[in-house]
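To whoever is on call:

I kicked off a structure prediction for a single chain this morning and the downstream step that reads the tokens threw a length-mismatch warning. I double-checked the sequence; it's 356 residues and nothing unusual in it as far as I can see. Pasting both halves so you can look.
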Amino acid sequence: MDIEKHKHGGDIYSQEVKMDYSANINPLGMPKAVIQAAYEGILSSVNYPDIHCGKLREALSFKEGIQKEHIICGNGAAELIFSLAAAIKPKKALLAAPGFAEYEQALRINGCEIVYYLLKEEQGFELQEDYLEAITPDLDLLFLCVPNNPTGLVSPKDFLDKILDKCRACNVWMVVDECFNDFLDDAGVYTMKNEITSNDHLFILKAFTKLYAMAGLRLGYGFCSNLELLEKMADSVQPWNVSIPAQMAGTAALREVGFVENSKALIREERQYLSIKMKELGFQVYDSKANFLFFRGLENLAEECKKKGILIRDCSNYYGLSDGYYRIAVRTHEENETLMEIMQEIIKARDSHADH
């Protein structure tokens, strides 16, 4: 197995970890009602799961304002990325880089040629107007992540609409990953879900993973008005791919309102705290709108943090990035203070070593 290919945040299994800043999971953890629902799901697991995820899709339809038949559920957003690529079988695709590694992996498995649009450091890693020129009729598909992973940056809705128009003109599938959308203060301003019914070559990807801290339960979902595609995607995965605990936990999660508001308030405050403190340490910090921060720091920072039992995400294996780029999750204030103290110690140790 190619270890580099499967390098992600959240590897708490191969080493002793005190604090995990490498996976962007809600610091408040899984809501109690969701844990209870998952537990009840385990008790019901003598049965096969509902192959159509009926109750979950009904709850999603109500919460998201999307027709039930336009919703597909999967074993995490990752499974949907792979089943989407298997269903469309694109020959040529456009990826913005740096971006989420799974897009590339899913496309390559299906023999797809990949064209990269490089997000440039001197432009703050933001998508530029010339991205529209990269969308050409010889493409079959493009992936966009809003907010982007690993940078946390968003593209204005009017620009996303222009991209959609260009995709329509060129007959290109537009896949928008909105897995971090729910962390935005104004999530409704950036979502493309209102365009679903009028565009049958638009697919929106979401998950319960980050906001509801359900990474281990594996539950993702997507919106698309192209029923033929949804059928092909369902045919490309094994049956019963979403477990009973995951379906019941997801349905319960959608009833959480106060939890979501509290999470967003905590993340907003702590993201600002971390951003200020890290700039004071001399790091280049980008203006993330998500529940994580992307920054440039010391070249061996991840290794030094690991020695102290802290995982941060080394982003050097992202296409378009070099050593020295990192991403950290936004966690509780107490944890964030500890992280800043440790980073300060690492910098002091480096400076005193340089003086000798």
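Update from on-call: the warning came from a stale cache, not from the record. Cleared it. Sanity check on the structure: The first strand starts at residue 19 and ends at 20.
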